[in-house]
Amino acid sequence: MEIEKALYGLKDAGRLFEDHLWDLLQKLGWEASPLTGVFWKKKAGRVVGLLSQYVDDLIVVSLDGSVSEMVTEIAEVVECKEPERLGRYVGSDYEILPNGRIWCSQKQYIESIPGEQSKTPTQPLPSGVNREEDKSETLDAEGHKRYRQLLGELSYAAHCTRPDLEYASAWLSQFNQSPTVRAWRLLNRAIKYGKATSNRGILLDPPKHHEPMEVLLYCDAAGGSDEYPHPQTGWVLLINGRPIAWKSRKQKRFARSSNRGELMALEDALDYGLVVMRFIKEIWRDAEMKCVIQTDSDGVCKMLKARNPKPQERALVQKVREIGGKVSIIPALAVFDSLKEGKIAVQHVSGVQNYADSLTKPMSVDLLASLLEKEKAGRIIYTSTGVETGDKKEKEMNDDNSDDEFPWPPQAQAPGRRDTAMAGEGHQTDRAIRTREEGGGLRMRQRQDYKAIHRGTTTFNTGVASAPIQFAM
């Protein structure tokens, strides 16, 4: 039986309207972009217009010519209200600043979420919450309905403009089927934290076509516990220092090792990074773009740097992609191939500087929240070496001369070549001193190599850094 007319208010009404609108947009020359819910219109092979759709709300952007012509064209085939300049869109507020930047926030929406009064917490969830056993009672039917409603409202804010609430939203969603009194209390805590920090949002910069564009993907994974055995994946995507997309979710499989969990998180971030790069390259074809995935896993970095994989491992890559992977080394080869295809580099980052860390475990979200403060975000600048703030730039310049900058263990040790042997407390051997003075010892070359790994560069045997690693340039 086929439905002839969809009634407003039915569960399928939104989807049916989207399908109907998509048919009309196709006739007007619009095409689906790689990003879900975003369409573009091309002229002579170049993108001239963008359209974002959320059910029956649309945002139309012209990249060439007047936007009024595109709006009028759409209004001829579907009934529309009088168009207006971008201000409020499906619960999000957009403020266009004098310098061309756009401030996106949901202050009004978050403050409207109801919730029980409680003391304002310092972070969305308490530390160690995922290690505690929940012995509280299950909510009744009315409480169950109320829990899912409030969690849905919190999750919408977390997905749109508040990555600092993303982990709390993801963790609380596992109680959707059977929420408990403890889960209800923690949900109200997260809502209270969101209201106390409702002034946070995302600052977007106007694109500069002739300046470099840097796409950074921070990824992380946290091992499961006896109560919640699946590892937690978290990643956040930054374009020139601005958070654009993020995700926190449980992995579908148990991880037999921490390296496997970290690798699956990197693969998840890579999948989205490839989609974003396709989208950006199609719009800004002349812009120089660099995409780097940052991970704090030494094991994953070593797997991706491994040379001469076994032929049987290489032959199984396609099969592993089909079945989801069974061991770490083979998915690592699959990831390496994807990196080569997408011209994406992988770098090691310290755990305390990994923005995705708070998307995988209950901890302080201050690092991630620093990107969401209007005043702090306004001081972020983009340089030829990346995105920095004044304080961070000065600190990294001072740390650059530190001997303890990269505490990675050596990947290989030549026999009889140790420059760290001690001839007594506080003294080094003559050989160690001579090696350091000559500047050609194994340890010094390794130190330069670790520094190159961290910055995404490779080194020759002489220890001189070459151009940044760009797979399959």
From TrEMBL:
<protein>
    <recommendedName>
        <fullName>Reverse transcriptase Ty1/copia-type domain-containing protein</fullName>
    </recommendedName>
</protein>
<feature type="region of interest" description="Disordered">
    <location>
        <begin position="388"/>
        <end position="445"/>
    </location>
</feature>
<feature type="domain" description="Reverse transcriptase Ty1/copia-type">
    <location>
        <begin position="2"/>
        <end position="113"/>
    </location>
</feature>
<feature type="compositionally biased region" description="Basic and acidic residues">
    <location>
        <begin position="130"/>
        <end position="141"/>
    </location>
</feature>
<feature type="region of interest" description="Disordered">
    <location>
        <begin position="114"/>
        <end position="141"/>
    </location>
</feature>
<dbReference type="InterPro" id="IPR013103">
    <property type="entry name" value="RVT_2"/>
</dbReference>
<dbReference type="Pfam" id="PF07727">
    <property type="entry name" value="RVT_2"/>
</dbReference>
<dbReference type="GO" id="GO:0003676">
    <property type="term" value="F:nucleic acid binding"/>
</dbReference>
<feature type="compositionally biased region" description="Basic and acidic residues">
    <location>
        <begin position="389"/>
        <end position="398"/>
    </location>
</feature>
<dbReference type="InterPro" id="IPR036397">
    <property type="entry name" value="RNaseH_sf"/>
</dbReference>
<feature type="compositionally biased region" description="Basic and acidic residues">
    <location>
        <begin position="427"/>
        <end position="445"/>
    </location>
</feature>
